């Protein structure tokens, strides 16, 4: 109802998304009850916070502040370790099909039911101490979309445990050995698709529903932030349902329009009452400051959580969609309020066009350009024969080789994209106008070349113009085109690398264009569409609202809508181009009249953007954009001639690692250091990661994983202390490879590190750099957010000269977990 209140295209598909309490705030439909004139947000289906323990296999309650109970599988006196679903247990029901009599033990927090009047053996000593609600469970039922069978009652300790591989010896029983399997098979309910148990609806959704208003319940903080740089301080009280029509001060949310492409909204929540399913912070508190981007008007409100931070004074978080930072200034526990400071950053600049190459190839149309991070690939329509032509560069655009001319012909420019590490091409057939997609086969033996087009698919859909092609982080391909007739925009997708295209999810929008569109994904999977108007030359950008529901859904990808198209003052006679410069969406176009190349960023995020006109470079067709090894490249055909040109945009440094490739998981037991080497898209192509589980009172394993959207996640409990070392400049065998990289390139004078989430208050972060047998280091103790390590502050025999670095290592030490999103260099 009222749109979605959780991450859609920006989050991974499947249960991981819905297991995140921050992503599921605000269930839909009848999952919540509303009572006017005030709104009470509650879980109708039962008590939340029940989890599976990966140490003892029991079901335990996580909602007791500061306690994880007592677990047989942990060290003496240690608590349970949660994993998997969050279960919702119905309780105090009238007589019915469910078996009642299950209660929580006050000592171990497990779910138990007396056997023959005996409470059972408790891991805390003696027998279970059962009290509280009377829970009821279904017996001997098959699996359902919202319940998990395979739970059994132990015949010795009387606790419920998960026994997915009978017959005996499951988990760890306080009576000794494994649990014994009882005869009944219990099905324990968990949320279906959306988490049905809370936390409560977000302020963005309540605002869309009409239960909150900007004048009565909000604080407008937009004006000082729009000045860039700007700063403001605001006090917020915790939101506990809608407070009614009366004006409330302090406000329950703050908002800013014109700072991001969508409304920026900040709220304060406490993990109690209606929000009891929110996690406890690393400091053991219950307070969180949440930041959303919200768009649309009732009843079509959509919001996306972009940042969250504990309410600890000094805690901070970067808000990438707004180029701003939030810092917690203080909190008043008696009043239930928090004070936060928001500071907007200046807009990024656009560098010069450098390393320009004029190729001995010509076309009457725009070229296409893409990178698989090993090669740059250029495609174009032949000037005289209309055939598809492709070339490749394996040296960052210095030389272009391995030309392939296909027998396929096209009526307009082709489009290129990379999905699952493979290059794909799309084009409109000459004569029939049918859309075609094929895989581009590349080879490096004996020299880099385009070997040909493979697995061609011809669709029945047609277009009079060039198509657009893009891919999301999950390997799904998206095809966009302008249809015949009224020239409406169309989008369709493929989940099997172009072999089949989901016609049931073919979306035809009311927006029209008299040229082909542009399509690109940026910032963890957000998909954007750009086009010039029909009957007018204005450029427009909109975001595709994409829902990734994951298998076994019949439609693992759903294109829901085209959100808030923004009509720009910029105009062009030709198709625009979209690309990415680090986390920023870039728009490229050929200006009207003077036909000069134009670039603008960041598009689709901040309301304002930086524009640069390259007056010396002109074209009578649209450009092409791609990101290659963290740098932005542009291709175009000349104006007054048909020569193809490729150049690089001078950047602000380089991305060392955005953690989009690497290990699924690395784990370390207590007192152990584990090391893995990964290859992928990072500086030098190799990353060596070491994980040390230094201190773990409960004996829990530490983990490292890479998320689908990018980011290294260091997983450990608040009472654990560990270290992560991430090294660059070493081969897969551990030998020094010598990066030979100039970290000062492109005017960089500092490392920039992005840590969007930190489980505890402080992380100790160091970088050690080596060159020619000398070394230097720099470090800081900091909280979450974006911070810099200036080259000038590096100390050691090497000093601040980082012009020829052999290797370097990033060292992280902290309690609790964290997410490391990016390590890069940048200029002041």
Structural class designation: mainly beta
Q: Report the average pLDDT across residues.
A: 83
Q: In what order do the strands lie side by side in the largest sheet?
A: 5-4-6-9-7-8
Task: Give the C-alpha Rg.
Answer: 28 Å
Largest sheet: 6 strands, antiparallel
Q: Rough shape? A: globular
End-to-end distance: 45 Å
**Overall helicity:** under 10%
Q: With helices defined by DSSP (H or I, 4 residues minimum), what is the helix count? A: 4
Write down how many β-strands occur, each being a DSSP E stretch of 2 or more residues: 57
Low-confidence stretches: 1-44, 192-198, 550-554
Could you tell me the strand content as a percent range?
A: over 45%
Describe the 3D structure.
The chain is mostly beta strands and 828 residues long. Helix content is 2%, strand content 46%. It contains 4 helices and 57 strands. Strand 29 (477-482) and strand 30 (488-494) form a beta hairpin. The radius of gyration is 28 Å and the shape is globular. Residues 1-44, 192-198 and 550-554 have low confidence and may be disordered.
Which SSEs are present, and which pair or pack?
Blueprint lengths: L14 H4 L28 E7 L5 E3 L20 E8 L9 E7 L5 E2 L17 E10 L7 E7 L6 E3 L23 E4 L13 H7 L4 H4 E3 L1 H4 L4 E8 L15 E4 L6 E8 L16 E9 L6 E9 L5 E4 L4 E9 L4 E8 L8 E10 L5 E4 L4 E6 L5 E7 L7 E9 L5 E5 L2 E7 L5 E10 L5 E14 L5 E4 L5 E6 L5 E7 L12 E6 L5 E5 L3 E7 L5 E11 L8 E15 L5 E5 L2 E7 L5 E8 L6 E9 L5 E5 L2 E7 L5 E7 L5 E3 L8 E3 L4 E7 L6 E10 L6 E5 L5 E4 L5 E8 L21 E6 L1 E2 L4 E9 L2 E9 L2 E6 L16 E9 L2 E3 L1 E5 L2
Parallel strand pairs: 10-12
Antiparallel strand pairs: 1-2, 1-3, 4-5, 4-6, 6-9, 7-8, 7-9, 11-18, 12-13, 13-14, 14-15, 16-17, 17-18, 19-42, 20-21, 21-22, 22-23, 24-25, 25-26, 26-27, 28-29, 29-30, 30-31, 32-33, 33-34, 34-35, 36-37, 37-38, 38-39, 40-41, 41-42, 43-57, 44-47, 45-46, 46-49, 47-48, 48-56, 49-55, 50-54, 50-57, ...
């Amino acid at each position: 109802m009222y749109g979605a209140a959780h991450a859609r295209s920006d989050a991974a598909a499947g249960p991981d998304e819905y297991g995140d309490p921050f992503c599921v705030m605000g269930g839909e439909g009848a999952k919540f009850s509303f009572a006017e004139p005030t709104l009470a947000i509650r879980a109708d289906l039962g008590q939340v916070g029940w989890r599976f323990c990966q140490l003892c296999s029991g079901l335990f309650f996580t909602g007791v502040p500061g306690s994880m109970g007592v677990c047989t599988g942990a060290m003496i006196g240690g608590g349970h370790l949660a994993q998997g679903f969050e279960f919702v247990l119905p309780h105090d029901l009238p007589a019915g099909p469910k078996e009642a009599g299950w209660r929580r033990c006050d000592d171990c927090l497990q779910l138990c039911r007396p056997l023959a009047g005996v409470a059972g053996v408790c891991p805390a000593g003696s027998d279970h101490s059962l009290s509280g609600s009377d829970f009821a469970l279904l017996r001997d039922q098959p699996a359902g979309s919202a319940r998990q069978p395979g739970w059994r009652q132990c015949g010795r300790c009387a606790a419920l445990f998960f026994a997915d591989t009978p017959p005996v010896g499951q988990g760890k029983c306080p009576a000794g050995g494994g649990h014994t399997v009882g005869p009944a098979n219990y099905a324990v309910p968990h949320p279906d698709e959306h988490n049905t148990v809370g936390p409560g609806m977000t302020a963005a959704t309540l605002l869309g529903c009409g239960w909150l208003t900007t004048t009565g319940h909000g604080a407008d903080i937009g004006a000082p932030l729009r000045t860039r740089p700007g700063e403001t301080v605001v006090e917020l009280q915790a939101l506990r349902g809608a407070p009614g029509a009366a004006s409330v001060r302090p406000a329950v949310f703050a908002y800013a329009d014109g700072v991001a492409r969508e409304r920026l909204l900040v709220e304060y929540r406490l993990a109690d009452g209606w929000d009891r399913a929110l996690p406890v912070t690393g400091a053991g508190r219950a307070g969180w400051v949440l930041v959303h981007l919200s768009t649309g008007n009732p009843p079509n409100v959509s919001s996306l959580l972009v940042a969250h931070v504990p309410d600890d004074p000094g805690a901070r978080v970067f808000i990438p969609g707004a180029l701003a930072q939030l810092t917690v200034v203080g909190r008043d526990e008696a009043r239930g309020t928090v004070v936060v400071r928001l500071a907007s950053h200046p807009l990024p600049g656009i560098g010069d066009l450098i390393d320009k190459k004029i190729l001995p190839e010509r076309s009457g149309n725009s070229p296409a350009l893409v990178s698989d991070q090993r090669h740059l690939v250029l495609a174009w329509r032949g000037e005289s024969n209309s055939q598809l032509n492709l070339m490749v560069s394996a040296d960052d655009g210095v030389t272009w080789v391995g030309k392939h001319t296909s027998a396929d012909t096209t009526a307009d420019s082709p489009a290129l994209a990379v999905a699952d590490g493979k290059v794909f091409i799309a084009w409109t057939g000459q004569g029939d106008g049918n859309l075609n997609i094929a895989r581009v086969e590349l080879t490096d033996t004996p020299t880099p070349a385009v070997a040909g087009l493979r697995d061609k698919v011809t669709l029945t859909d047609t277009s009079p113009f060039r198509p657009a092609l893009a891919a999301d982080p999950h390997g799904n391909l998206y095809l966009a085109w302008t249809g015949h007739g009224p020239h409406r925009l169309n989008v369709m997708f493929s989940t099997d690398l172009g072999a089949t295209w989901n016609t049931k999810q073919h979306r035809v929008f009311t927006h029209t264009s008299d040229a082909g569109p542009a399509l690109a994904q940026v910032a963890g999977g957000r998909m954007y569409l750009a086009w010039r108007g029909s009957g007018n030359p204005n450029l427009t950008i909109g975001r595709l609202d994409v829902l990734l529901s994951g298998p076994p859904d019949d439609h693992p990808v759903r294109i829901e809508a085209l959100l808030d198209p923004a009509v720009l003052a910029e105009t062009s006679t030709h198709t625009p181009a979209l690309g990415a410069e680090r986390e920023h969406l870039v728009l490229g176009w050929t200006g009207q009249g003077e036909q000069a190349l134009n670039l603008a960023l960041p598009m689709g995020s901040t309301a304002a953007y930086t524009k640069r006109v390259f007056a010396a470079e002109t074209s009578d067709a649209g450009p092409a954009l791609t990101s290659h090894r963290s740098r932005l490249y542009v291709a175009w055909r000349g104006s007054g001639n048909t020569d193809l040109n490729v150049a690089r945009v001078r950047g602000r440094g380089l991305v060392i690692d955005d953690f989009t490739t690497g290990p699924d998981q690395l784990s370390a037991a207590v007192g152990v250091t584990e090391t893995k080497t990964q290859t992928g898209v990072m500086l030098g192509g190799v990353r060596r990661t070491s994980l040390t589980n230094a201190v773990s009172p409960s004996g829990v394993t530490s983990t490292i994983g890479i998320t689908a959207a990018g980011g290294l996640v260091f997983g450990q409990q608040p009472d654990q202390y560990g270290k992560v070392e991430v090294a660059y400049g070493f081969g897969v065998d551990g030998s020094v490879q010598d990066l030979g990289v100039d970290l000062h390139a492109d005017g960089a004078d500092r490392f920039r590190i992005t840590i969007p989430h930190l489980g505890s208050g402080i992380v100790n972060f160091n970088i050690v750099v080596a060159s020619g047998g000398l070394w230097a280091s720099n470090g800081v103790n900091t909280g979450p957010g974006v911070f810099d390590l200036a080259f000038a502050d590096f100390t050691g025999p090497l000093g601040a000269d980082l012009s020829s670095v052999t290797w370097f290592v990033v060292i992280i030490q902290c309690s609790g977990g964290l997410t490391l999103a990016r390590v890069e260099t940048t200029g002041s």
